[in-house]
């Protein structure tokens, strides 16, 4: 079933099947950004940006991932959050990573040069955790092909060894119900399934991890009382995850508040059922065409060997992605069964 509640919010001019790269911006998010831009152009105080909008977005995100506000920090990019975590690890620490995972999850650990990154297949992560593993970092859903990590098994293995865990939920939160509570860290970009723009990202930090993670990029917004900390060294950091905040990109957070409100209004369970229904329809159609996608159950469906069809599809007004040699289609709440059928028709011999 398609989601009629979402229809008035979206107006894509193409058959857009590329949310795993970037989501379509709702009209309400566009209006929020225009509001701020017009105020800035008019030279009014409202054009400075409103921290209450950032707070509202933080509250909505916290509810979405099932944690309290005290565990949520705001930022601008997943790689910045991961870099903060990487910087806190001691020299020589082993970081267990999945082969082929997204670069932002991997590179901050690799470029340090004095850590020990160890790569294993995604399916082997749980059994690869050992007593000297300092951190496991993994995307909950793989960007390249939509494979879903067995987070429960990985969490059980890390808990048995007392190993912290970092989960990138960029390809997860916004379509799959997700609880961030069990993990020391989660990171999420806001411009894909959360329907925002680049410049808004989220870091969750467990209470215990807040005592060990160093807020290396702390500015005045990281203080307990930010407006009393604009000059000179701050007297006291925020007592919770807000100490890891970056100064917000207001345009991005105005959009984020509106987009998160829309997702909250529709309900992630409804989005989840809708997206997987479309993906299942696509998989069934691919089977009829004799095409074999990467197995899995997510709204990201990759077909190896078909990356070369992406330019042809784009010329026909069907936007998908070419990733790791595969044609990747991703289905979200603004897509319909007609979109799936249009893609299948375009792929038919």
Task: Explain how this protein is built.
- This protein has about 350 residues and is of the alpha/beta class.
- About 35% of the residues lie in helices and about 15% in strands.
- It is built from eleven helices and twelve strands.
- Helix 6 links the parallel strand 5 and strand 6.
- Helix 1 packs antiparallel against helix 8 and helix 9 runs parallel beside helix 11.
- The longest helix has 21 residues.
User: Overall 3D geometry?
Assistant: globular
Under the CATH scheme, the architecture of the largest domain is 3-Layer(aba) Sandwich
User: Number of folding domains?
Assistant: 2
Q: Remind me, CATH topology of the largest domain?
A: Aspartate Aminotransferase, domain 2
- Terminal Cα span: 28 Å
Helix/strand structural class: alpha/beta
CATH superfamily assignment of the largest domain? Answer: Type I PLP-dependent aspartate aminotransferase-like (Major domain)
Measured as a percent range, the helix fraction is 25-40%
**Unreliable residue runs:** none
Please summarize the sheet with the most strands.
7 strands, mixed
């Amino acid at each position: 079933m398609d989601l009629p509640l979402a229809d008035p919010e979206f107006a894509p001019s193409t058959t857009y099947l590329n949310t795993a790269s970037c989501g379509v911006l709702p009209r309400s998010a566009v209006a929020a950004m225009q509001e701020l831009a017009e105020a800035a152009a008019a030279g009014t105080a409202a054009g400075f940006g409103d921290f209450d909008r950032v707070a509202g977005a933080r509250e909505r995100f916290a509810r979405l991932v099932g944690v309290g506000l005290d565990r949520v920090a705001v930022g601008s990019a997943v790689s910045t959050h991961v870099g903060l975590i990487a910087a806190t690890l001691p020299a020589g620490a082993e970081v267990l990573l999945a082969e082929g995972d997204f670069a932002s999850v991997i590179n901050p650990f690799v470029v340090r040069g004095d850590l020990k990154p160890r790569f294993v297949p995604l399916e082997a992560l749980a059994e690869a955790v050992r007593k000297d593993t300092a951190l496991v970092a993994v995307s909950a859903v793989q960007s390249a092909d939509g494979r879903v990590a067995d987070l429960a098994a990985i969490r059980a293995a890390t808990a048995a060894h007392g190993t912290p865990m970092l989960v990138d939920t960029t390809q997860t939160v916004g379509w799959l119900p997700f609880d961030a509570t069990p993990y020391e860290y989660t990171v999420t970009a806001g411009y894909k399934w959360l329907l925002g723009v680049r410049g808004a990202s989220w870091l969750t930090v467990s209470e215990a991890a807040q005592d060990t993670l160093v807020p290396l990029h702390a500015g005045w917004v990281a203080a307990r009382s930010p407006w009393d900390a604009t000059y000179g060294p701050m007297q006291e950091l925020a007592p919770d995850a807000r100490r890891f905040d970056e100064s917000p990109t207001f345009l991005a957070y105005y959009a984020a508040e509106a987009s998160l409100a829309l997702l909250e209004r529709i309900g992630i369970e409804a989005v989840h059922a809708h997206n997987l229904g479309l993906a299942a329809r696509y998989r069934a159609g691919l089977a009829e065409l004799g095409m074999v996608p990467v197995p899995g159950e997510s709204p990201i469906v990759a077909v190896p060997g078909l990356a070369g069809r992406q330019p042809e599809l784009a010329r026909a007004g069907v936007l998908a992605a070419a990733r790791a040699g595969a044609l990747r289609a991703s289905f979200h709440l603004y897509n319909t069964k007609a979109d799936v059928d249009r893609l299948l028709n375009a792929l038919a011999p």
